[in-house]
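Known limitations

Files may contain more than one protein. Parsers should not assume a single record per file. Below, a two-record file is shown to illustrate correct handling: read the sequence, read the token line, then continue until end of file.
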Amino acid sequence: MHWWQKLHEWGTDSVLQEVIVGPEANIFVGALYVDADLDVRSLFTARKSRQYPPWFGSGSYMEACWNDEIAALSTELVKKAGYRGVCGTEYKWDPRDEKWKLIELNPRPTLWYSLARAAGVDVVWDAYCDLLERPNAPHIHCQNDEIRWQLLVRDLVSGWHFKRSGDLSWREFLRTVVDPRHKDYAVLSLRDPGTLVGYPVNTLWKYLAYVRGDRGES
């Protein structure tokens, strides 16, 4: 509170945010497209099981998982806000009062939207069709919950972190981090062989730059 008072005395604008306790698996997201009449034409929900950096970062491993409560909360939020277009919602379950807490409303497609597409709810395509007035049925409650999504290298780091801390068993490490079945990769595709070379090279370049930076400061 001392620093909060100091900021107030200095006349600086600031925001106080609460950390919601509980594991990353308590985080659920929604992907939606809302048309000009505020009708939701696409709705997808998923569990964000891991992030990078661990605890406070971007999703690195997610699983398609329909959740009625997240779907209802997301729909209510965009309608009350009068929001139109593509957006993502994020909620975390708070075990202290057993309620979902809103983390953010993101007014754009994000990297994990490829999970929605792989699971059968292509939110961006639905928006495209609606804007061009092409016939296109709503996609709600029709997702394939067997699909998983991974930002490979970052999730390897995050998964190993939780394995070492004892928060992830060997079985879950192999199932979520290693097993490629029913998995959509964020920046890798067999249909785009260039990514199979470019992604590892880019990762190695970033790692070397990081190491050189550490050495330069020591």
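...continuing to the second record:
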Amino acid sequence: MTTDSPDLPASAGAPAARAVRLPARGGLGLKPEHFQTILETRPALGFFEIHAENYMVDGGPFHHYLGRIRRDYPLSIHGVGLSIGGEEALDETHLNRLAALIERYEPQSFSEHLAWSSHGDIFLNDLLPAPYDAPTLQRVCDHVDRVQERLGRRMLLENPATYVEFAASTMAEGAFLAEVVRRTGCGLLLDVNNAYVSCTNHGRDPQAFIATLPLAAAAQIHLAGFAEDLDAAGSPLLIDSHGAPIAAAVWALYRDTLAKTGPLPTLIERDNDIPSFPVLLAEARQAEAVLDSLACEVAA
């Protein structure tokens, strides 16, 4: 089964783009610790995802292994450095390197974050929030249009995990994302863990929040683990750490989300404290079990 996203509408800032097609199955982030295991075992898995910035060189061992693995599996490329929400124009050198990487591997999906990570010549190793107001909306739409124009394809924009909110915001996050989708024709990468983390941190209902997102544009889901802490007032504070198993509450929210969206390609993210490959594969299998059970309910 595949998930097809429509081409960009004629009114969007990019030319008509190829449809995004990833199988509606579980996928894993591709980690160097697991290259050899994957090649030796060829696991039954829906797809792999890479972070674009780890592959923005011409050669080396990462490309050696990715080239071999890409022959057998669909691929998603996830960017972390475009600074879509930043105040300044996009870094065209970075965008050109990204375009070369996408041309080289022809992934079924490309996504980035609704966040910013650079200011002038300074690059911050973090994904920082932006206010949801009219100037930010215009800037984000301009940046998404430019990315889609340069890449010649539809991109997905990911809802962020946030820990603070801006008094300057005049729009709710769901309405903001819906307007970006409407204006640019981009898709939504629905990070269920980010939704749970943000809503816990801000005292909101995650199910109600997800219902405000442009779910018709959702083309992929991310699941991950979080770390627990307390803020200065002693209230629960969740950190999107990608360093733990997926929490039971996030699995439950995932199932509720799929009931609204239908089956979607689902990535298990793990970027810290990376366990053995079988541990991650088991989580991908768990996602597929949820996908299969919902498909059976629909067919019944």
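Parsers that stop after the first record will miss the second one. For reference, the second record is described as follows. The two ends are 18 Å apart (CA to CA).
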